[in-house]
Write a structure and sequence with these properties.
The chain is an alpha+beta fold. 47% of the residues lie in helices and 25% in strands. It contains eight helices and eight strands; from the N terminus they run H-E-E-H-H-E-E-H-H-E-E-H-H-H-E-E. Strands 1-2-4-3 form a four-stranded antiparallel β-sheet, with helices on one face. Strands 5-6-8-7 form a four-stranded antiparallel β-sheet. Helix 1 packs antiparallel against helix 3. The chain starts with a helix and ends in a 5-residue tail after the last strand.
Length: 235
């Protein structure tokens, strides 16, 4: 019980500090933040996060400009956020990753904690519909790039599933990265992968509605992430 209370206090502290950090850089913070600290990951789910200028750009069908601008701002924020999360969790924190759903005004910030694998809860490694989720991840990844060499996934809580795919980039993608087109590749892959994911099927096997889907990559290690935010289950 004490550990649970300490975790909740830590999550509240992170939410407050991260909200201020985003507000200082974007000029407007998210309406709400939901922080989950569950080894080996930490996630920050943002709601109602869109500045007035971004709203104007979206009304002009210029979502790409919003994405590009946010990428520039996040390059400034990530080091400070990494220091913040390391201090709060008392663990080294990997690169901060993120993705947005501009239509819903939501977003995700997440990072992998550098912890001992033996510290993971076994329930995270075995949850309902895990086999079907991995099959769907392999299917759409193969269609977009190639079959992953390995897929892992973790259920951090009853609303958050995060998956990690290894060895997915094809030759042309590696060449684009090597020649300086990483930003353009990331923006294109975000749109493509989300389009390919069969959320209706996943909702059926999970018996739970999917509220949001986010993706991002670590191109240096040839690793891709998919995060599913689920609606709260019916009690």
């Amino acid at each position: 019980m004490i550990e649970l209370v300490e975790t909740r206090t830590m999550e509240s502290s992170i939410a407050s500090a991260a909200g201020k950090l985003l507000r200082d850089h974007f000029g407007k913070g998210p309406g709400s933040l939901f922080v989950t600290v569950e080894k080996p990951f930490i996630t920050i789910y943002l709601k109602n996060f869109l500045t007035p200028m971004e709203n104007v750009l979206l009304e002009q069908n210029n979502a790409l400009k919003v994405q590009e601008t946010r990428d520039l701002l996040m390059s400034k924020i990530k080091p400070d956020l990494q220091v913040l999360l390391s201090a709060e969790t008392n663990h080294s924190v990997g690169t901060i990753r993120y993705d947005w759903n501009l239509e819903k005004r939501t977003g995700i910030l997440f990072a992998e904690l550098q912890t001992n694998p033996n510290e993971f809860e076994t329930d995270q490694l075995d949850y309902k519909a895990k086999k079907e989720i991995h099959e769907e991840i392999e299917r759409f990844t193969k269609k977009a790039q190639k079959s992953p060499r390995n897929i892992k996934s973790f259920k951090l809580n009853d609303r958050t599933i995060i998956s990690k795919r290894e060895d997915i980039l094809v030759c042309i993608e590696n060449e684009l990265i090597n020649t300086g087109f990483e930003e353009q590749l990331r923006l294109s892959k975000r749109k493509l992968e989300k389009h390919l994911i069969q959320t209706t099927y996943l909702e059926t096997v999970l018996e739970q509605a999917i509220e949001d889907v986010f993706v991002d990559w670590d191109f240096d290690s040839d690793t891709g992430y998919v995060i599913f935010i689920l609606h709260a289950p019916n009690k």
